[in-house]
Design a protein that fits this description.
It is built from four helices and 39 strands. The radius of gyration is 26 Å and the shape is flat.
């Protein structure tokens, strides 16, 4: 019997597949459908499958070399399979320290010092988290008078961590901000900020909240802290462009310290901040148009918010975007116009849109003779039914994309037929028994 957490990381998954001669596992399909063709054909039975763990069983006579493997929680700890790798900053759009920066953590620029109080009678203490792939030995802590201490360098983002005290995993007792680890315990959370919401106005008011498109304009989530001279709240925001306002004793106001103010297209104005490289969108011609608006999935297809500026040769708009894949088009006096300078497209809500990859790190390619019309779809675009159209460049159909770190599943749609990548031997089973091609981005 083999039981493992559904949050098992990619490294643990590969090792487990190799150690126990398992086919590639589709966690989502196993949970939803309680079956996987390649598992059953290899003699495995799915005994249990829920959001926390999966238990597989195989008769002893079918195990290679007659060996018996007893997998339990202790084995999970020893092999580090129980440790997930969520919370990397590129996967988190917005985060903040819910209860303030914990007393156990001090940050100066990119250096972060973490202290574990007490436990001075223990022999070895290590710090482990998603910043070191949950390594059990790479960050030893140094004994100090009041306990243990270590200083590491971290980029802005959300981090999960634990201490390992003589082999025992514990969350930070001085940090109230934590989340379940999926195994009956908790991971401590620390958010290294890259932006400070701040104002030295409204000190006579009782409450100041910030709300924006980064938290779906939640009016209750983010209450600013107050000292004798200001209101403030440090947060982490992923690269991109954000609009926001302060709510001062229930009255919505612009940030008095931010001169970047934008029209939301509905007669209202918002304060705006942006992070990362700015992308310039350009639509040539249409100089007789009264209004041109840029819209896309990065603004939830808002039809008035991003009004473009008129220049001699057309219209331009500058907008900061984080790493990822985006769809967009232009509205010229409310009529949809595609980007004539971008030949890569994707269908959104039964309409064609331009496809834009920011931070391209992979290119799908298929030889010219593969078919006459080729699309690609997969987990990187949430399995859009028609996918992204690939263009014939030279002797190959191609499209540049951004793929997140870890595993990406995909298929080609070749002349209307869904097919796996004929040039990629890595295939993972799916609920249809047809498999999906697999790409791993380190």
């Amino acid at each position: 019997t083999l039981e493992f957490p559904t949050s098992i990381n990619d490294v643990g998954m590969i090792k487990m597949m190799n150690d126990f001669d398992l086919p590639a596992l589709n966690i989502d399909s196993i949970i939803r459908f309680k079956k996987q063709v390649s598992l059953i054909s290899n003699g495995w039975e799915i005994v249990k499958a829920n959001n926390k763990s999966i238990r597989l069983s195989k008769k002893l006579t079918q195990i290679n070399d007659g060996e018996v493997f007893n997998i339990n929680e202790n084995w999970n700890q020893d092999t580090d399979y129980s440790q997930d790798r969520p919370g990397y900053s590129f996967n988190v759009a917005f985060a903040y320290n819910k209860y303030g920066i914990p007393k156990s953590i001090k940050q100066i620029n990119d250096s972060v010092t973490i202290v574990l109080a007490d436990y001075t009678n223990r022999s070895n203490v290590y710090l482990s988290g998603n910043f070191n792939d949950w390594s059990t030995s790479s960050i030893p802590m140094t004994r100090i008078a009041e306990g243990w201490q270590v200083t590491i360098k971290l980029m802005p983002g959300k981090y999960l961590y634990k201490f390992i005290i003589d082999g025992e995993w514990i969350s930070d007792p001085a940090n109230a901000y934590k989340e379940e680890d999926g195994h009956g315990s908790y991971n401590s959370i620390y958010v290294k900020s890259n932006h400070l919401f701040f104002t030295d106005k409204y000190l006579e008011n009782k409450k100041l909240v910030v709300a924006g498109n980064f938290n779906s304009w939640n009016e209750k989530q983010l209450t600013l802290l107050k000292n004798d001279s200001s209101w403030y709240l440090p947060v982490y925001l992923k690269d991109g462009t954000y609009q926001y306002k302060f709510i001062v004793d229930n009255e919505w106001k612009l940030d008095p310290g931010n001169n970047d103010i934008v029209n939301d297209g509905q007669g209202n104005f918002n304060s705006q901040i942006s992070f990362g490289n700015k992308h310039q969108f350009y639509l040539p011609l249409h100089t007789n148009a009264k209004r041109v608006v840029l819209t896309g999935d990065f603004v939830n297809w808002h039809t008035t918010a991003l009004q473009m500026n008129k220049v001699d040769s057309g219209w331009i708009a500058t907008y900061a975007l984080g790493l990822g894949n985006y769809a967009y088009y232009f509205l010229v006096d409310d009529s949809i116009v595609q980007d004539p300078k971008n030949n890569f497209t994707i269908e959104i809500n039964q309409r064609e849109a331009a496809f834009l990859s920011v931070g391209t790190n992979y290119q799908f390619r298929l030889p010219n003779k593969t078919g006459s019309e080729i699309f690609v779809t997969g987990s990187f675009i949430n399995w859009k039914e028609k996918g992204c159209k690939m263009n014939l460049l030279g002797d190959h159909y191609q499209i540049p994309v951004y793929l997140p770190k870890g595993k990406t599943l995909y298929k080609f749609i070749i002349d209307g037929q869904w097919k796996n990548d004929p040039t990629n031997l890595q295939v993972e089973d799916n609920e249809y028994g047809t498999g999906n091609s697999v790409i791993w981005i380190e």
